[in-house]
Design a protein that fits this description.
Radius of gyration: 29 Å
Helix content: 40-55%
Oligomer: single chain
Distance between the termini: 71 Å
Order of helices and strands: EEHEHHHHHHHHHHEEEHHHHHHH
Structural class: mainly alpha
């Protein structure tokens, strides 16, 4: 740590490497940071140290290229004045000169670089959040972006409602004046994560010295499992009653909720199932969740999920035969033109449908079926590792994830058949 305290004030101190002493005409750099706050001092010293290390590197590089001692000395002293500013606000100083690009230019560069690494939906969400950021803080040059700008954006975000796309051609102030319920903290934090990732890119590409939005998130002590509720037996019975009307037509509206109930699969995984993903292994019918069909959420999401006997008893294999010439298992599911996702349109439909069935709890959504499935097995004392493998969660154990292989299909089938809801099926 290149930090010392003289009196009540912290100072930056750094020894100059012996091979560079002659260029600086001194063997040590000392500069007051002009703060008595240790946390602030540590941040500023880290930034100073990074900047000085870069200067040392540049001098050595110029020397390798044949620079004279006089030129190197002038360069060292000139750059040192810029890299050791005499103000306590060093932490807010930005790179200047050719790097003073507008935020919108860097957003475009960032999105272009990351486009191939993201699915279309992720790209859309990132682009939307970043354009919102530029719209609120202004399309200023990146070196003019202050912590206060990011905090102001964060505070406005906490007052904005969810699904901002509803308010086309309306100003942010107009939307705020509507005084609608704000978006969920998790939604706000996701947007701030996108902004922070973009600013980290700017730091990496040396357009900024540091991330001025770092740490701007809503901190909550509420456990993550409280974000959504599980479906009660009464609510499941309402759902079962509601989907009966789709047993003969628009059958995907019948089967998708049932698959969710009895497999714990994510909605997008279900909507992206192909006919060829329904396979028979050791005389057990299974869903194969693979990267071939679509990009999965995590590496551990690729798995085999045995089909619950209840789904088979309700006629799933007959349904499978009826769609054997189709690519998609649920071909009537529409793909969103905006995000390219097969789940988005169904998700919006299901939100309306479950309310029409009488399920009005806002914390009970389609994804809650996954929570319900996991909780059901947990309450039956099923081992965590088996549940994790069924639902595609990462197993945080070297022994089980690195050395232990996947469970046999027979073992997984025995596990999934333990799911028995206290509801009636017609």
């Amino acid at each position: 740590m290149h930090l010392i305290k003289q009196g009540n004030i912290y100072h930056f101190r750094r020894n100059i490497p012996s091979d560079l002493v002659s260029y600086f005409n001194k063997n040590r750099l000392v500069r007051s940071i002009k703060t008595s706050n240790k946390k602030t001092a540590i941040t500023q010293v880290a930034l100073l140290n990074t900047s000085i290390n870069q200067l040392f590197f540049e001098i050595r590089q110029k020397r390798t290229m044949g620079g004279s001692d006089e030129c190197l000395s002038n360069y060292a002293r000139e750059k040192l004045l810029k890299r050791l500013p005499a103000t306590k606000n060093f932490a807010r100083d930005r790179l200047i000169g050719s790097n003073c690009r507008k935020i919108s230019e860097l957003v475009e560069m960032y999105l272009k670089e990351r486009k191939d690494a993201w699915v279309k939906q992720t790209y859309f969400l990132q682009a939307y959040a970043l354009n919102l950021f530029v719209g609120i803080v202004g399309d200023k040059r990146i070196n003019e972006l202050e912590r206060e700008d990011c905090r102001n954006f964060f505070n406005i975000l906490k007052r904005l409602p969810s699904r901002l796309a509803r308010f086309k051609n309306q100003s942010i102030q107009r939307i705020l004046d509507l005084k609608l319920p704000p978006a969920h903290p998790k939604t706000i934090n996701i947007k701030m994560t996108f902004i922070s990732a973009f600013l980290n890119f700017c730091v990496r590409e040396q357009f900024l010295n540091f991330n001025v939005a770092r740490g701007l998130v809503i901190k909550t002590n509420e456990p993550s499992f409280l974000d959504r509720d599980t479906w009660s037996n009464k609510e499941l019975q309402m759902l079962i009653g509601g989907i009966q009307q789709y047993k003969e037509y628009e059958t995907y509206k019948y089967w998708i909720p049932l698959v969710g109930m009895f497999s714990g699969m994510r909605l997008n995984e279900i909507c992206c199932l192909r006919v060829e993903d329904v396979v028979e292994r050791k005389s057990i019918w299974c869903f194969e969740v693979s990267h071939d069909a679509h990009r999965l959420k995590t590496k551990g999401s690729e798995r085999v999920v045995p089909i619950h006997q209840q789904i088979i008893d309700l006629g799933f294999l007959d349904y499978l035969k009826s769609v054997h010439n189709s690519k998609w298992l649920f071909s009537e599911v529409k793909t969103s033109k905006t995000t390219g996702s097969r789940k988005d349109i169904f998700s919006k439909y299901f939100a309306r449908f479950k309310k029409n069935c009488g399920v009005v709890n806002p914390k009970v959504v389609f994804h809650s079926l996954r929570h319900t499935f996991v909780n059901h097995l947990k309450q039956k004392s099923v081992e965590d590792y088996k549940i994790a493998e069924l639902v595609g969660h990462k197993i945080n154990s070297i022994t089980m994830s690195r050395y232990g292989k996947v469970y046999d299909t027979i073992v997984l089938n025995e596990t999934i058949q333990k799911v028995k809801y206290d509801v009636l099926f017609d």
